[in-house]
Amino acid sequence: MSTSSDFLKYVPIFSELPDETIEAISQVGTKKYYKRDSIVLMEEDAGSALFIIVDGKVKVSRTSNDGREVILSILAESDFFGEMAILDGQSRSATVTALEDAELFIVQRNQFLELLQEHPEIAISLLQELTRRLRGADIKIKSLSLKDAEGKVATVILQLADDLGKIKFGIVEIEKLPLQQDLANMAGTSRETISRTLHSFAKKGLIELDGSKLKILDYAKFKEMYV
Amino acid sequence: MSTSSDFLKYVPIFSELPDETIEAISQVGTKKYYKRDSIVLMEEDAGSALFIIVDGKVKVSRTSNDGREVILSILAESDFFGEMAILDGQSRSATVTALEDAELFIVQRNQFLELLQEHPEIAISLLQELTRRLRGADIKIKSLSLKDAEGKVATVILQLADDLGKIKFGIVEIEKLPLQQDLANMAGTSRETISRTLHSFAKKGLIELDGSKLKILDYAKFKEMYV
DNA sequence: TTATAAATGTGATTTAAATCACAAAATATA
DNA sequence: TATATTTTGTGATTTAAATCACATTTATAA
Question: Which residue is nearest nucleotide C10, judged by alpha carbon to C1' distance?
């Protein structure tokens, strides 16, 4: 039987739970809709809740005083965010913006902490997910510290491929590549460098560009080259 | 009464546990000594265990093909590492090296997982610690992406102050500042830039340098300026 | 202590990538 | 469909910081 709480089964930290618990969780949270470009939560915000993406994409970013932005990650269906403020009680450190119209499922802090108490297995998968994110962050730090512009762009493409890419006949395809300015804000380079580098990759036969579609023609090779 | 397992009380993820449990943990692990510059664990290593620093300092780093290094963090007494490979089963992604002669307490993977099962509160404080590290990583990514060399050096000094600094009369003091080359590998800049920038900070009256001692004369102001 | 090696300070030069500037293309909107 | 707006492509110029080069200082070992 399929119910409206099905989306929770695909959330890694909940997927191991029995159906009744999933159903129970679906009762303690609420759905909310966000229009493209609207801000889901702001740096420095006090409140805290866990947000699960039912549909749509969001970007998690930090902004400098002079308005320049780093995009820390792009999250999609069945990803979650907001757990950091819940877990350590610190105020939010990043801003989350809807990249397209999005539907989010929101569980308030206390409810989530209760869940964590009653189902220690949630804590374990949460630990796994945070570990995954920490590994990703370490890779990013290495890329930003040691690589030239080309390498940084490659790192971002690989990150997007892992997070949003779909594999078709061995070719990894990113359906809706973010705008060049957003790619620049992910890579820590300029918009112009993104443009030039993507075309250079295409000329070398590493990727194929078609509008906002990007195909990595040989994922293993590409990874090997730029890891 | 003071016992030889006292050091475990100061490890954040164990500090809440009853004395008997702490004593029990001290039985399941072993102490091991590492000489300065010796490698505690290597990128790509298979095995996994949790390492707790009883005494000494280590650096956690990643290295590029051409031998250049990023230092992800410097850890000291009562810090721990090695949890990532335990939690997600992936192979190690970083190398850990002793910066000075060090004494480590080692708990094997299975033992640690058992502890986690029996004491869910360990999982909670582990979640808090990973969150703290993730916040730190995000700050680093922002710094590397958006700041100029001066800002990057400031970020590293602030990170060191938080991790190893001691407050004396409102002045934050870093006793043994890492070598300039290590600072460079932490900041993602060159050794020469570290030298020039530190002297520039000193000239501006922001810090005081005395051998390998560094004092941040007005921590709040310094943070404000470079956050 | 003296010799040797490692680490630091600081100018001069080079270089990768940012910025500037604007045309062309693609998307959104009237 | 036409018009406005956003996004992209690409040369030319500037610039911040890396690299080079070497003297000086500090630490380590003989």
Answer: B196
Residues of A in contact with B88 (CB under 8 A): 128, 131-132, 135
pLDDT in tens, B172-217: 999 999 999 999 999 999 999 999 999 999 999 999 999 899 999 9
Tokens 């680093």: give the residue: B140
The first and second tokens of residue A190, run together, are 């300029």
CB atoms within 10 A of CB A47: 11
Of the candidates A150, A159, A190, A200, the one whose C-alpha atom is nearest the C-alpha of residue A177 is: A159
Q: ∠ at Cα B162 (B157, B167), nearest 5°?
A: 100
User: Of the candidates B64, B84, B147, which has its C-beta nearest A135's C-beta?
Assistant: B84
SS3 letters across chain A: CCCCCHHHHHCCCCCCCCHHHHHHHHHHCEEEEECCCCEEECCCCCCCEEEEEEECCEEEEEECCCCCEEEEEEECCCCEECHHHHHHCCCCCCEEEECCCEEEEEEEHHHHHHHHHHCHHHHHHHHHHHHHHHHHHHHHHHHHHHCCHHHHHHHHHHHHHHHHCEEECCEEEECCCCCHHHHHHHHCCCHHHHHHHHHHHHHCCCEEEECCEEEECCHHHHHHHHC
- pLDDT tens readout for residues B44-71: 788 899 999 999 999 999 999 899 999 9
pLDDT at A225 over 60: yes
Task: Report yes or no: B38 at the A interface, CB cutoff 8 Å.
Answer: no
Q: How far is the CA of B64 from the C1' of C18 (A)?
A: 25
Min distance B2 CA to chain A CA atoms (Å): 31
- The residue whose CA lies nearest the C1' of nucleotide D27 is B211
Each residue's pLDDT tens digit, A29-83 = 999 999 988 999 998 788 899 999 999 999 999 999 899 999 999 999 999 999 9
* C-alpha–C-alpha distance, residues A195 and A212, integer Å: 13
